[in-house]
Amino acid sequence: MKQKNIIVVVLITVVIFVGAFVGFNIFNSSKAEKLDKLAHQCILDGEYQKAVDYYSELYDRTNDGSYIDKKREAVELLSSKNNYDYGVNYLKEMKYVDAAKSFLKVSNKDSVNYQKAQQRLQESTQAVIIASDSFAEDDNFEASLNLLNSYARVMPHETLVIDKIKEVEKTKDQFKQKKQEEEKQRALSEKKEKEAREKAEKLASESAQDLMKEKEDNKNQDNQDKQDESYETDDNKRLIDLCIRLVGKTYLVTTENAKIYEEPSNKSEVISSIPLGSEVYIYEAKPDSGQRVWCHAIIKSADSLKSYDAWISSNNLEINDEALNNEGF
C-alpha cells in the first residue's frame, strides 16, 4: 500500500512538471510569436533599431539561430537608414559628393529608404550641375571642374555630369583662347600706343618750337595793312599762348560724348565720340577764329581704352592752368 502511494505521488509530480514545462513552452512560444510579428512590422515601418532589439530578445528567449540571421539583416537595414539620413544632411550642407556617397550606400533591400535615396541622388546631381554653372559664369573653371570631377568619381555613369564636364572644358578652352587673343591685342595696342606717343612727343616738341617762332615773328610784325588780321588781336595772341602751353601735356575730357575729328574743324569728318574722363595727349595745336584751340592728340577712351589719333576742341578739355582759366579758356 505504501509503495502504491509513492508511485502515485511520483506520477502526479511528473504530470505537474510536464504540464508546467509544456505550459511554459506554450507561453514562451506565444510571446516569441508576438515579438516576431512586432519585429517584422518594425522592418516594414523602417523602425530598424526596434527590430534589432526585438530579434535580440527573441534569440535570448528561444536560442533560435534564425533570429541571429534576422537580427543581422535588421542591422544592415539600420545602417542603410543611417546612410540615408547622413546623405540628407550632407545635401542640406551642400556637400554634394559626400551626399552621393551616402545615398549610394542605401541598400535596395531597404524598402523604406531606397527609392527616396535614388530621388535624392538626382537632386544631388542637379545641385552639382547648378553649382558648376555658377562657378563657370564667374570664369572660375577650375572650381567648376574640380566639383564635377569629384562627383564623377563617385557617380562615374552619370551622363549629365560627364556631359557637363565636356561642356565646361570646352568653355574653358574658348575662354583661354579669348584671353590670349585679348592679351595679344592689348600688347599690340600698347606697342602702337607707345610708338604713337613717341612720335607725338617728337611732333609736340617741333610744334612747340614752331608756335614759339610764330609768336616771336608775330611780335616783330608791324601794323601794316598787309598783315594777317588774325594776328592783330589780343585774343589771337592769347590763343597762340594757349597752343604753346597745351602742346606736350595730357588733359582730361570734361564733357560727355566729346566729338573727335579727322581735321581741325567741326565740319570735318567725325571719327568718334569719347566719354568723360578720357585722356588726351596733345602734340599739336592750332588757334581757331572761334575763340578755341584745335588740339591734335593721342586720345585714350575712358571706357574702351581704345586709342585715337585725332583732333579735339580745347573746349572739351580740363585745362588746369590758372593763368589760362583767368583768360577764359
Give a written overview of the molecule:
The chain is α+β, with helices and mostly antiparallel strands and 329 residues long. Helices cover 65% and strands 12% of the residues. It has nine helices and six strands; from the N terminus they run ααααααααββββββα. It has helices at residues 2-45, 48-62, 66-92, 96-104, 114-137, 141-154, 159-220, 234-246, 322-326, and strands at residues 250-252, 258-261, 270-274, 279-288, 292-300, 307-313. The strands form two sheets. Strands 1-4-5-6 form a four-stranded antiparallel β-sheet. It has a two-stranded antiparallel sheet with strand order 2-3. A hairpin with an 8-residue loop joins strand 2 (258-261) and strand 3 (270-274). Helix 1 packs antiparallel against helix 2 and helix 7 packs across helix 8. The longest helix is centred in the middle third of the chain and has 62 residues, at 159-220. It is rod-shaped, with a radius of gyration of 47 Å. The chain starts with a helix and ends with a helix. The relative contact order is 0.05.
Structural class from helices and strands?
Answer: alpha+beta
Query: What's the story with the biggest beta sheet?
Result: 4 strands, antiparallel
Cα-atom radius of gyration: 47 Å
Question: What is the terminal-to-terminal distance?
Answer: 153 Å
What is the residue-mean pLDDT, rounded to a whole number?
82
Helix-strand blueprint:
Blueprint: H1 2-45, H2 48-62, H3 66-92, H4 96-104, H5 114-137, H6 141-154, H7 159-220, H8 234-246, E1 250-252, E2 258-261, E3 270-274, E4 279-288, E5 292-300, E6 307-313, H9 322-326
Helix pairs in contact: 1-2, 2-3, 3-4, 3-5, 4-5, 4-6, 5-6, 5-7, 6-7, 7-8
